[in-house]
Amino acid sequence: MSVLLLGGSPSVSSSSARLLQHVGDKLALHGHRCNTLQVRDLPAQALLHANFDDPAIVRATALLLDADAIVVATPVYKAAYTGILKAFLDLLPQDGLDGKLVLPLATGGSQSHMLVLDYALRPVLASLAARFILPGIYATSDQLRWNAATGLTLDAPIAARVARGVEQFSTELFALPQQRLQAQHTLHSLAV
Ligand SMILES: Cc1cc2nc3c(=O)[nH]c(=O)nc-3n(C[C@H](O)[C@H](O)[C@H](O)COP(=O)(O)O)c2cc1C
């Protein structure tokens, strides 16, 4: 199944992007095809001016619409998700996540804002008609250690949460075609 890894950090050297890639690597081991979209790579002017027709925005939107599932990662900025992530989500069709599974990830400077996932990001994902939003995974920057030679090391509780989240996401993802068929069948039965 196809998964879009959507990164919402403006930083080049980003802990949330590393966590996102880590989750993507694990999903690839389960046999899923992952594409990555970092919102920071989209043209800033198009994002700020809500230019729906910009070719890079059109391509990014198509990438998202084509995916069966999304893993979205954001750092906490001022007790919420980032502005650039919102700028991109604002450019999606109203039902842009229709039928998709979503796994939200966030990193923050402290545990104080871990509810950002539930109180800020989840309502936006739900308003875009996501089919099933899995419990989010939150890590503080010091629970993620980066070394250019050895890569990303997660504290044990985060590693366990990531393992559980990936397992559940992958299971739900493989069940998606069957659920879609059942939904179509139900709609068809209601129509006749
Ligand atoms: C502008 C800005 C605002 C931030 N606001 C918060 C905040 O409100 N709460 C928090 O826990 N961390 C906050 N942080 C810390 C980041 O969330 C944290 O360092 C995160 O891991 C950075 O992720 P990134 O490397 O992917 O950008 C803020 C950082 C920046 C640069």
From TrEMBL:
Residues in the signal sequence: none
Keyword Flavoprotein: yes
Enzyme class: oxidoreductase
UniProt record, GO biological process: alkanesulfonate catabolic process
Molecular-function GO term, any one: FMN reductase (NADPH) activity
Pfam families in UniProt: FMN_red
Keywords: Flavoprotein, FMN, Oxidoreductase
Domain of life: Bacteria
Domain annotation NADPH-dependent FMN reductase-like: ranges: 1-140
Protein family: Belongs to the SsuE family.
Protein's UniProt name: FMN reductase (NADPH)
Organism: Massilia atriviolacea
Gene: ssuE
